[in-house]
Amino acid sequence: MGSDSSNDEDQQTHFYEESRKEHDDGNELGQNGKKDRNMKKKEKQKQKLLRQTAKAKNRGVCYLSRIPPHLKPLKLRHLLSQYGEVLRIYLAPEDHAVKLRRKLAGKNTGKNFTEGWVEFANKKDAKRIAKMLNGEPMGGKKRSAYYYDLWNIKYLKKFKWDNLTEEIAYKNAVREQKQAADISAAKRERDFYLSKVDQSKAISAMEERKLKRQRVDDPSSVPDDDSTLATGSSKFVRHFTQKKSVADRGDDGPRLSQNILVAVLGRK
């Protein structure tokens, strides 16, 4: 009986060790498989990034110095796509103040653009298109608003779309700083005006109290005038009695009476 129980224990121990070994081997294989999958995934991402970088180096950007009125990005893509593959388009909108003035003048109220950039999939196509279209009529339907407008397009050498995004971000930052400076200047002007208003009110109150004290001390010296209180001025007008003029007595000789003079003049 003792030998049978010991054999059973040995078998159980051996089975446990075998199962544990198999479990460890399975975990190791699973970890190795996960590492292999991660490495393959990273390698694919690296290859994809290299392909995208190579494609980006082969792209070309053209600059449009003027965008005709009513020309939208979708229509511009349609016009240029017939000459080459267009990837991205950015058109700079006009200033809001210019649009507002045009709207008040009763002219075109739509959204217009001032300049634009077009990215082509191939830089050779971009060079060819810029050389072929620059200075030529845009064409399209004769009834279109830009049928007789000319292309103003130029190929930008060694210029990539990332440079454009950096330039746009820089312009936005400059505009935000300018707006912040304008707002700060307006706030300073407002605070200065409010401080002057408060100062004026304080001075007016002081002058009014001064007038009241003067009325209490000497009522005859201060006129009871509402306008004086309204203006806040402490000045008042003094009235002096005028004396009658005295005849010139520089000549001490005798003077004729008024009746004699009338009689003499009347006779003449």
TrEMBL record:
It is found in: Nucleus, Nucleolus. Keywords: Nucleus, RNA-binding. It holds the Pfam family RRM_1. One of its GO terms (molecular function) is RNA binding. This is RRM domain-containing protein. InterPro entries: ABT1/Esf2, ABT1/ESF2_RRM, Nucleotide-bd_a/b_plait_sf, RBD_domain_sf, RRM_dom. Residues 1-54, 208-231 are annotated as: Disordered. Residues 11-26, 208-218 have a biased composition (Basic and acidic residues). Belongs to the ESF2/ABP1 family. It comes from the Eukaryota. SUPFAM superfamilies: RNA-binding domain, RBD.
